[in-house]
Amino acid sequence: MDFLEKLNDLMEKNHLNKSTLSKACNIPYTTIDGWYKKGYEGLKLTTLRKLAEFFGTSLDYWASEDKEITAEKSEILKKIQKMSDSEARAVLAFVNTLDSMNKEKRE
């Protein structure tokens, strides 16, 4: 997904339009509207930070065009980054357990 596809997806999930997003993120409406009319090249890092903070995503989510990184996965990554090492190890152990269970189901 490209930037606008991600933005549209998150706006739809959060029942937002360009105007309400502008007010919620403190990004000028003309900036948001311009992304749709002129493209989003030259998008400022400060603007991406506002979007990431508002939607609870990482900056990687916005910067990557990887189709595998969904908003939900990005949110998980952002939360893991805030965890202590011991908390992150516990999450990893849980994920490894899920992975093992899924492998067993496939066999």
Segments where pLDDT lies below 50 for 5+ residues? none
Percent of residues in β-strands:
under 5%
Q: Report the radius of gyration as a whole number of Å.
A: 17 Å
Could you give the distance between the termini? 32 Å
Order of helices and strands: HHHHHHH
Residues in helix, %: over 70%
Oligomer: single chain
Count the helices. How many? 7
Report the strand count: 0
What best-fitting shape do the alpha-carbon axes yield?
elongated
Classification by helices and strands: mainly alpha
Mean pLDDT: 88
- How does the major sheet shape up? none
Describe the fold and architecture:
The chain has about 110 residues and is mainly α. The chain is about 75% helix and about 0% strand.
Please supply descriptive tags for the structure shown above.
mainly alpha
Reconstruct the topology from this structure.
Layout: H1 3-13, H2 18-25, H3 29-38, H4 45-55, H5 59-63, H6 71-81, H7 85-106
Question: Could you write a compact summary of the structure shown?
Answer:
This protein has 107 residues and is an all-alpha fold. It has helices spanning 3-13, 18-25, 29-38, 45-55, 59-63, 71-81, 85-106.
